[in-house]
Amino acid sequence: MKTFNTTNETFGISRRQFLATAGLTAMFVWLRPGRLFAEEESTTVSPVLIIRSAAATAKITTTKLRGNISVLEGSGGNVAVLTGRDGKLLVDAGITSSRPGITEALAAISPDPIKHLINTHWHFDHTDGNEWLHSEGAEITAHENTRKHLSVDTRVEGWKFTFPASPAGALPTKVFATDQKLHLNDTTLVLKYYPPAHTDSDISVEFTDADILHVGDTWWNGHYPFIDYSTGGSIDGSIRAAEANVARVTNKTIVIPGHGPIGDKPQMIEFRDMLVAIRDKVSTLKKQGRSLAEVVAAKPTADYDAKWGRFVIDGSTFATLVYAGV
Ligand SMILES: [Zn+2]
């Protein structure tokens, strides 16, 4: 198990380990529209099945943050774990096929049973493990829109994929609209709804005493984010959430992004500034009457691609996502 500290060196190690996991390689394939179209045209293999099977062999990395809080990386979105006498609480559920790896990683942290699960939003790579975690005894808390989307067949146009309604055991058992406070394992947790951002179901989870904030997919540390317009996400909502995140943390806060390494306020500022700059460029071009193809060809993300475009969303894909919302 690694121990988290705030040197850049640790971030570097964490990032390399993160990128090295098989699950993320699969997600790279999964989220790239170009590859996805090709996949759908040439075969019937679902990208969800691809990521599920890849996650089965993904290496799960555990990093201890502060106090009784750790993070698991390697199966879908980053999973925070709080331990103690009230049982383990997880923030996000990973991919079901990683169950053996996640079970092993959880057992290595502490023997406490799994009692609570919070979903940061409805997306598959954060809720796929809901059913098995619930079967182990976890009560599932989420925003009401997470339950709404999981309850019915839901199309994500940006992934060209329709997710079937989840089984009853995977559905959140406790939902809220704006905020919720929990007190477990001598820790106060504040759950807060973002107005529509990456989706219309995003929440943050703050461990107030430890000063740790899980912001779900409102932050992809070091990567262009996916924006899910099909369930209420937008570039402007994503920018508003990035602003709110920056305003909310101090330089001492440890921030868990949905994807990418554990980070801090300066990195959140960099992400916010990148979103704003690219939004402005794409908006200016669109207002000049340029088509999507013309805007993508003009490479409005060129200055940023080397840093931000090397993960699941490349520059062209991100420009396309921004174009849809300006
Ligand atoms: Zn997401």
Summarize the structure.
With 326 residues, the protein is of the alpha/beta class. Helices cover 39% and strands 19% of the residues.
Strand order of the largest sheet: 1-2-3-4-5-6-7-10
Count of DSSP E strands?
A: 15
Percent helix, as a range, is 25-40%
Strand pairing plus helix content: what structural class?
alpha/beta
- Low-pLDDT sequence parts: 6-44
Order of helices and strands: EHHHHEEEEHEHHEHEEEEEEEHEHHHH
Globally, the shape reads globular
- Count every helix, treating DSSP H or I runs of 4 or more residues as helices: 13
Instruction: Summarize the biggest pleated sheet.
Output: 8 strands, mixed
Average pLDDT reading = 88
Oligomer: single chain
- Distance, first to last CA: 44 Å
Radius of gyration: 19 Å
Catalogue the ligands. zinc ion
Range of strand content: 15-25%
Supply database-style keywords.
binds zinc ion; alpha/beta; five-stranded mixed β-sheet; 326 residues; 13 helices; eight-stranded mixed β-sheet
Structure characterization notes:
- There is one protein chain.
- By secondary structure, this protein is of the alpha/beta class.
- It has 13 helices and 15 strands.
- The strands form three sheets. Strands 1-2-3-4-5-6-7-10 form an eight-stranded mixed β-sheet.
- Strand 8 (154-156) and strand 9 (161-163) form a beta hairpin.
- Mean pLDDT is 88; it is low at 6-44.
- Zinc ion is lined by residues 121, 123, 198, 217, 258.
